[in-house]
Amino acid sequence: MPYGYNGRILHVDLTIGNLHVEEPPESFYRKYLGGSALNMYYLLTQMPPLADPLGPDNILALSVGVTTGAPISGQSRMTSTAKSPLTGAIGDAQGGGFFPAEMKFAGFDAFIIKGQAPEPVYLWVNDGHYELRQAGHLWGKITGEVEAILQAELGDKNIEVAQIGPAGENLVRYAAIISMSNRANGRTGMGAVMGSKKLKAVVVRGKAGKKNFSVADKEGVIRLPRHGVKISPDPFVTGLGKYGTAGSTGAQHAVGGLPTNNFNSGIFEGWEAIDGPTMYDTILKGADEDKQDLRGRDTCYSCTIRCKRVVEIKDGPYPVDPHYGGPEYETTSTFGNYCGVDDLAAVAYANQLCNQYGLDTISCGATIAWAMECFENGKITLAETGGLELKFGNAEVMVLLTELIAKGQGFGQLLGLGSAAAAELIGRGTDAYLITSHKQEAPAHMPQLKSSLSIIYATNPFGADHQSSEHDPAYEHEYDYYAQRLKLLDLDQPQPKRSLTPEKIRFARQTQYLYSALDSVNVCQFVYGPAWHLYGPEELRQMIASVTGWDISLEEIMTVGERRLNMMRAFNAREGIDREQDKLPEKMFKKALKGGPSDGFKVDEAEFEAALDEYYRQNGWDVETGIPMRHKLEALDLAWVADDLGL
Q: In sequence order, what are the residues at sequence separation of 6 or more whose Cβ sits closer than 8 angstroms to the Cβ of residue 635?
């Protein structure tokens, strides 16, 4: 019998309403581990090239990993993968909470969904049983309402729902998939793919599956939480739990790395008003009560860190319901410093709108910031905005635009296409203000300071992403806690700040393989990534071995990460995407940052291009095209992918 995973994958054809179960062999699970790598197998083998991202041929794969559901921190993650309607390239997004574990307990490791339903439907999976049900009565409703209706309809308050809100129905190109009304598979527009398929929700319940869930080595699984208890007093762990990811706002500002006014500066005068400690002291749920460090903190299944924010605002213009969670660092940044807004209540309310309507907070806030800079430079007019003054610092307009985008109304309808597509339609030099790579808006970490991110943002198959590799400070200081874990990745030569040496490129590449593997095993990068203290690469290996019973090495795990990355690059090659699209926005080369420690910083274009060549060479990709070469694909047991590409 398999340990940890079910050995069952549900295939759904929405066009004809057909559902059937596949039972892959153990070798399949060991080769891909689950999550993103598993999803890529189905997209490459079952989706025709050049499929319309919003058409019936696009495949939406939702999967968990071989360890999902185990009683240990950081394992409850679900990956959604499809061709992105935002970028036209591969799309990929992870989300946490309780849905992933419940999906595993419901009896399946993945749902492979194709076609388009003639009318809105939802997929109901209950203890191994599955069916499509009508969802017309749910269409148009926000996430909290849908959850309540389905709980009553199915007679179970413990169901888990992964759904789209009205933004996904309206095909906003960066619409998200939302679970628990506050956890998002946010990036690359996976919610729009669901909306195009008329799939309102996937609902799972697994009473028997949870009871029968088994691991190969129970004592081995128990040892890791014991290890975590010893580490959990570490300030990195306690700080993440107490203040959430927004606790890093002050540190980013201090080094000049807090993107402000659409990446024009790395410092923000109003940073303290929107940081993690301020959130903790003011709007975190229970902030007026003596509950110490556990107040306003939610968690994912079986995780001890409890880093998820829960905020509540009862009065004022921006009331926030704690059911919709609270903002993290990327969200406080994109709606806050990106837009020059220092109103925490407005930022929290914009976050709530995104969770109610189903929007990626990063692309939404960044697209609004882009529009603000265009407006302030006379590239967008009042006539086009419907009379809205899109000026940095205007919290009211930031909130209103978020709602208009979600509803597909007014100027929000254009912004719902994403900033790159909007710039193409508007013209007039608006592309000079973009902060996109592969048409995806950049998250709140700056390549002008973190040099290796310039290469990762430009080359990452699904666009600019901050969770696809480790960041430069991990290899620019001889921090003991970093060094011991990086040595496991054969990284023991710390590099100068803001460098793009071959060794820094190797650091970016090696950690990219690890993060790629984490998204295939489907574990939380804040728990198992090198920079966060609870666990590291060796504990990841021990966890997989204990759950599955496999004698697995870290090298084998890293190979899965490399395999997944190459499969994504191969998918993009099929879609006509190659080195020509591996770019940073012009702004990062031509416009120096202003103010603070990063004053005058920009990305050196010649150094970037040389580093890009080096990155391709180290990966075994063609330097001219950026496409994986046949010998590399064969070494990763992907000869069939090379054949498909005609290599």
A: 620
